[in-house]
Amino acid sequence: MLLEKNPKQVGKTRSKASAKSSPRARIPRQRSVPPKETTPVEDTASEKGPVHYDWRKYSDKTGMPLPSGDLVALDITKIFGEEMGPGLGNRILRILQWRRESGSLGDFGISLTGDTDVTQEQCLRGLEWLRANFPVDEEAAAEAWRERELERLYQVMEKDSQRLGFYKRDDALDGVDLGQPQQGTEFGQRYARSELAAIREENERRWEEKQKELEELEQRQREQRPPREGQEEPDVVVQARERLSRRTGLVLSADRSADYIEQGRQAREKYNKYWEEKAQIIKDNEAPNMSAFQRLWPSALVTAATLGFCILLAQTYEPPTQSGRLWPNTPPALSTCVGILLANVAIFILWRVPPAWPTLNRYFALCPGYPIALSNVFNTFSHQQLGHLATNMVLFMVIGPKLHEEIGRGNFLALYLAAGTLGSFASLTYHVLLRRFITSSLGASGAVYGILAAWCLIRAADHLRIPFTDLQIPLSSKQLLGVMLALELFNMWTGKVKGVDHLAHLGGYGAGIAGASWLMWRASERRRVVEEKRRKMGFLERTFNVPPSAGEK
After folding, report:
1. What are the tens digits of pLDDT across the range 290-333?
2. What is the DSSP string of 41-83?
């Protein structure tokens, strides 16, 4: 199962299972009481007022203390809610206060670097509280911040230019007042003429010469090959060809082939953008205001119904006759697995068809921000990336036919569908409870890992053989399953593997283990019944009757 950042996905969501940085919010600046002085203010305290701190002594990483000091847990709860602790809440307020005092709020925004658990909404609440309790002239502070940044960048550029030899400082002009009437002239500038400016002027002169030559050449070609009688070349086509000529450095004739390529590209972009906007369910990246129960209960009902269908399928499925099969000359195990493979490939191809995006976004991608109940089942057949599809299907085609031969088609299909659905619901529940709404999930990983877990338990081999070779590994199948589970938990805990839905994988493992345990219990019960009947048979029955094993399915 892969967490996708799909450009066509709902509200442009695809990435935050692991996307970690959110776009900076545009913060309206507040203008309040102007500062009384522009000189640095020392940290002072008065008997009647709060402590005033100088923001220059602090940084954006730690923030600056609030004038009233850190807030207690009750105040933090009133501002951010019950899920916010006093330590993190005070840290958010200190950082936002430093950005307000320093004027860097417009550049840094309200997002906290590295704190993925802090949402934009929580930061906005803290900012509103600070503005209501500690007025600051944010516009004046932002203007001062911009001036300081410009001066700092200018000094950096000056040092780099001197180091690279583009610019040579004239120390004789330092401190010399050239006078207001001469400002704006070559001799009225503070610094001497730089070599970088001379290089730029030379490049501009060469570009103008090439441009003139290109125009003359195009004019000659136009005269030699005029348009057909009764037709005039539109100005927009001429301008487009000229733009392409300047961009590529090639001389384009009036056959309009390059213009057709450019127009086709623009038409495709417009076409794709239309279907992207039409496929969006959530606008402006804002999830609907719904409780966790409202988001989960429809998917929970669909999951329960799917599990009931899987149990019924496993109990009642009867294989068709040889003449009734679609591919009678193909082994049943291979036919079943190839059918599932073709279904996944078909959905992968549909993701390349823009008119299919609205349907695929609703039913073949799981989005915690606005979950569609049926997507909990259908997303297990959906892939957007070729690497994701290839990884899942290769593993499925290696393990799937072997497990199918062991348990039969009905049990195999039921196990595949149940593992994928339970993995999707586990992922949905996890992201909803953590309020990670700007993300989406899709893929057959949960179902494939469920098949793999069931194979490891049912096969119960003491040694593993590498596929397509005679090499064996001294590792039992159950030990392999334990290693894979441990690796999945480790990756989930450390977060080093980005863009992977670990909860869907674990849900698939759990469904596969439960399904395999149930199948093995059913097999043991059938053997127990047969042994019980055999013990109750008399001598003549055991001698002349049909062996009890014939009653086994």
Report:
1. 888 888 999 999 999 999 999 999 889 888 877 777 777 888 89
2. PP-B--SSS--B--GGGS-TTT----TT-PPPHHHHHHHH-TT
Domain count, the chain: 3
The answer to the question of residue 237 being in a domain is yes
Ramachandran area for residue 256 (φ above 0: left; ψ -120 to 50: alpha; else beta): left
State the Rg of the chain over Cα.
35
Asked if 251 and 245 touch (Cβ cutoff 8 Å), the reply is yes
Residue type at 60 in one-letter notation: D
Query: How far is Cα 505 from Cα 493, in angstroms, rounded to an integer?
Result: 14
Helix (H, G, I), strand (E, B) or coil at 114: coil
d(CA 501, CA 1): 5
Band of the pLDDT at 532, cuts 50, 70, 90? Answer: confident
507 and 373 within one domain:
yes
Tell me the pLDDT tens digit for each residue of 54-68: 888 888 888 889 888
**Whether pTM exceeds 0.85:** no
* 175 phi-psi bin (left φ>0, alpha ψ -120 to 50, beta other): left
pLDDT at 9: 40
Residue 172: the pLDDT is 55
DSSP string of 272-312, one letter each residue: HHHHHHHH-SSSTT------HHHHHHHHHHHHHHHHHHHHH
Q: Which residue has the tokens 């030379």?
A: 202
Structural domain contains residue 325: no
Q: Tell me: do 267 and 303 sit in the same domain.
A: no
| φ, ψ of residue 201 in degrees (nearest 5) | -65, -40
pLDDT of 89 reads: 87
Q: Are residues 231 and 335 in the same domain?
A: no
441 forms beta bridges with 3, 366
Cβ atoms of 429 and 456 within 8 Å: the answer is no
Residue 51's contacts (CB-CB under 8 Å, 6 or more residues apart) are: 43, 44, 45, 65, 67, 69
Q: Would 149 be classed as within a structural domain?
A: no
Residues 304 and 233 in one domain: no
Contact 153, 107 (CB under 8 A): no
> ∠ CA(261), CA(265), CA(268), 5° rounding?
135
The stretch 355-373 carries a mean pLDDT of 87
Q: Is there a single domain that holds both residue 310 and residue 352? A: yes
